[in-house]
Amino acid sequence: MLNFRRLVFLLVGTLLVLPSNLLAQCGVERWSVKTGTDADAGMVNLNAPMNTTIANMRAFPTPNPIPANNRVSPAETTLWVINATLTVFKLESDSDYHLVIQDASGNTMITEIPAPSCVGSGSPFLSGITNARSEFDARFTATTSFQTANIPVQITGVGMFDFPHGQTGAAPNQIELHPVLNVIFNPSTTPDFSMAASPAALSVTQGNSGATTISTGINGGFNSTISLSVSGLPAGVTASFGTNPVTSTSTVTFTASSTATTGPATVTITGTSGTLSHTTSIGLTVNASGGGGAQQLIVNGGFETGTATPWSLTAGVLNNSTAEPAHTGSWDAWLDGYGTNHTDTASQTVTIPSTATSATLTFWLHIDTAETTTTTAFDTLKVQVFNTSGTLLGTLGTFSNLNKAAGYTQRSFNVLSFAGQTVKIHFVGTEDSSLQTSFVIDDVALNVQ
Fold this sequence. Notes:
With 449 residues, the protein is mainly β. It is built from four helices and 25 strands. The strands form five sheets. Strands 15, 17, 18, 20, 23 and 25 form a six-stranded antiparallel sheet that branches. A five-stranded mixed β-barrel has the order 2-3-4-6-5. It has a five-stranded antiparallel sheet with strand order 16-19-24-21-22, with no helix packed on it.
């Protein structure tokens, strides 16, 4: 009995001196997505942060249903940077720091920094979360009650849709930056501005129009108007701004004539105010009218925006290196090529009209390999179609190291059987543990009539 009591006293004493973060409660709901231990975490390119605004983030449609352990592209597969004002903060019961940020128009959204002790060691976000937590702790002490800050911040974090439960400062669509990977307080004392386009890629059919929104963020008390201009338009396409000069947002409408040059193009929007100038790029694809309602459904099929949007890509797939040059332009999707057990994916969701009389998926494929066999498919690329519930509807084709070729070859598949459905066109490259095979995809199109 004496030894048992000593053991109890020892245990209690140990618990009393343990650091509080070791006793902290961690979250449950979408916790893998919130901390980067989900299977889709690799889709987030941590080397390609995108400037955006609270208004842009609040414009994303709320997914229905919200997946428990997967990500919704592009909102949850992008590293976002927002300049705003940190209004209030507190320590939540799941050990997150709950930070409410607000723009000049009063729009708010939540950003959260998890406790590093609640983040799995395999998360690609762990070092950033640890960094952000340290940056915040150096300035404030979070408690379980809201405290007021009212300080300019630049928040860098990954998008995440939360479930509504009365959170203070929540956006109407429940979008958050969660986790936060970097916090800069008073980010600039020099007046300046930033620009972002949403969506950053769109397509228009000859004889029709399409629009995107240009949003500006301000730093260091910047309060001047910004004049917008456009360059890089394909022949036969014009652009008009809803507001110009602009102080916050403006809609730019692209109108393609009936003879406009078809194909992908990168359009540059330039904002100028005095000696300051910044740009943002839009991937614009002009589709042929075909005289009978023909249209091209894949957006950013040549990857020429230099961003994944609206693709879902495994980290590192987006490529503009000379090691695997593009079929046209500068960018492509480079799957595998590591010479180790590895899987890369590239996918985009499209809706094929029920009235379609033809639907053809085409893409240009280059395969190079170090495999020497002429009989065994060690490394493969599958072209698949899934429905919105994640059910495999069909495998259109399979390529392997046996299909290696010196240049690009165009591949074509009839997908009319999926008319009337919203489907995900999915490329998956799988590589074994020895000898690399690279599958390089470019200029993807899905033409329907």
